[in-house]
Amino acid sequence: MIFYFTGTGNTRWAAQQLAEATGDELRFIPDELGKGELSYTLKDGERLGFCFPTHGWQPPRIVREFIRKATFNLQPSDITHQPSYIYALTTCGDNMGYAMRIFDKELSQKGLHTDARFAIVMPESNVCFSFLHLDTDEKALRKVNAARQRMTHICQVVKECQRDVEELVKGAIPFTYTYIIGGYYNKHLITDRHFWVDAEACIQCGLCAKLCPVDDIKGTPPVWQHNERCTNCLACYHHCPRHAIHWGDMKRGQYVFRGER
Questions:
Q1: Which residue, 4, 101, 136, 230, could crosslink 15 as a Cys pair with Cβ 3.0–4.6 Å?
Q2: Distance (Å, rounded) from C-alpha 127 to C-alpha 108?
Q3: What is the rounded distance in angstroms from the CA atom of residue 122 to the CA atom of residue 85?
Q4: Strands 2-4 and 39-41, bridge-based pairing
Q5: Which of 50, 213, 15 shows the shortest CA–CA distance to 122?
Q6: Residue 83 near residue 51 (C-beta atoms within 8 A)
Q7: Where are the alpha helices (DSSP H) in the chain?
Q8: What is the mean predicted confidence (pLDDT) over 152-164?
Q9: Of the candidates 230, 213, 239, the residue with the CA atom closest to the CA atom of residue 4
Q10: Whole-model pTM?
């Protein structure tokens, strides 16, 4: 089983590469949360994978919520007699700080631990910090090409169930990124109250409401419900076909992963 979350498609692409390489089933975390009972029993020798983007150098709120609510029943393999293989992969614009440390702590509350941890750098999608900017098309293409090579290696490691593997991109000052800058970001900027819509540009297609993973958008033009569940995935912002949705008072571009990039 591979549980994943995505906003702009970066992490969905990575999860799909793993699913194709291993034959493991893909499950979208927002869909799982909507089912109510979250109890999973792995088959003999089945891998358990988690794929998520880094949001403000931390795991997304919705991913942490899923881990806390879910129950995982793991069985040792009849062949190897080893416990089920667990791994996690995070995507990030440049580095992920200590995001995986926080994820591992959440997992440990379930009595589980990751056997392998990965990070891959993908095109930047965060438009909520004044000092962060979307990548140029050229830079985005370089990142995607490098990520394709990385994923070939990662898929092989996971397919072979290699243990004690850590291939992360923590950055120069991971503590500052995660607990100071990221702490501020996740406390004050993970909210729907900074979104607004240009009603004249909006074509009332309803795509933003359809894509919202926490059912926070209603109507056309969109109205955010302030249900305190926004995870700031920016799916509504980046997928808007007319760029009618904005975040704060900064004018930024849009990014969505496309296989041809």
A1: 4
A2: 32
A3: 25
A4: unpaired
A5: 15
A6: no
A7: 10-22, 29-33, 61-69, 99-108, 137-159, 174-175, 182-184, 207-211, 235-239
A8: 97
A9: 213
A10: 0.93
